[in-house]
Amino acid sequence: MLGVPGYLASLALAIAMVWDAVSDLLLGHWSDKTSSRLGRRHPFMYAALFVLPITFYGLFNPFITLTDDNTFLYLLVMAVLIRTGTTLFEVPSTALLPDLESDYDRRNKWLALRYAFGWYGGNGIHTINFMWWVGAYGVAVQTGYSIYGTVGAVLIAVAIILSALGTQPVAAALPRPEEPFRFSEITREIRQIFQSIKNRNFAALFLYGLTVGIAGGLGTALYLYNTTYFFAFSGKQIAFTGFCVMISPAIAYVIAPAAGRIFGKKGAAIGAILVNIALYPLPYVFSLAGFWPELGSWTSLYLYSAFIVSEVVCSIIGGVLLDSMMADVVEDSEISTSRRSEGLFYAARGFAGKAISAGGIVGAGAIVSLVGLDGVTSVDMVTSEIRTNLAMFFLPVFCGLNLVALLIVSTYRISRDDHKANLATLAERKGLGNVGQDIIAPGAE
Fold it and tell me: What CATH number is associated with residue 406?
């Protein structure tokens, strides 16, 4: 997109990840202890409005004339600023959930709705992009990316404004933290961060997210290469798959809360992700084995789209339940620390999630170079050897990382009964009744 070789793009994102490791945790902890008439979270959400849309636009529409000498530095600066802007909005907005909803099962429903909006927005612009912009002009042409960057920046700004203003009245009415964040005592603040993240259930979710995030990053970053060069789909065909995926969030919205009630959050999440792992490699294996329809054909596309829809349903179900499990960690941690650390925990989750993009570019950049795709600009240049090597390098790493991640998350231990016990303990400490009652919108029915 900016003409940067894969290995340099990988280096830029790796550096940005190091920045994330520090800034995400610090900002999350800061938002937990912010006392403002806007609420704990909203000052950061509004700050994102002045960072994220502008830098997203600048990534695809450079503000300066790029040369061989400055392109890498420009990419690095944009990567760091975009990831900081994402943290400013994503962490505080997600951290509102434990305050707004305490019920074990209803948290699943709200997160399923959040994921649905996220998928409809992200997949919607992706589909439009491959129908009329990048897909129309060609994946190697800058014009489509410039349009995508402009429209994307506007939509990001609108989403931030609507989300922040919509939750403002409720957030402002929530209790303020008893202890403020003090930069003058940063050593003490850092000690509190480490005190909170020592929670074993949080550790299970964080390490899971980090591991599966890198695996998901490989799939995300190589998606365009796989669909364009491995399966030989055109831009409009890729857009067709995007249209098909629109049904996935609706299906997951129904299944995720029900599965959580029946099997528990951890059991349902692990089951959904195992199905996803089993389905993911099948189109590649069938294609290489000669059991797949003709590459680039519509029959191939229909079958591929069916796999993708099923995989996305499972992915959303797993994501919803795992995020809901993170919400339950908030009360579990409060028992031992006497502090609510939603921002810190979701910042750490956000850092793991950002490994999707960073880990994806790092891994994908290496794989693209190893299999000889760096100089490929059309499907006619792709040999059977390149296709085979692409699958052999990518699939074992992707599936292996996901399996390791599931072993990690299996150590999570908060059940429905444990969560109820935590709420009861906290209510007793505060002299409150109605344990487990949701607190959405004070005064609402």
Answer: 1.20.1250.20
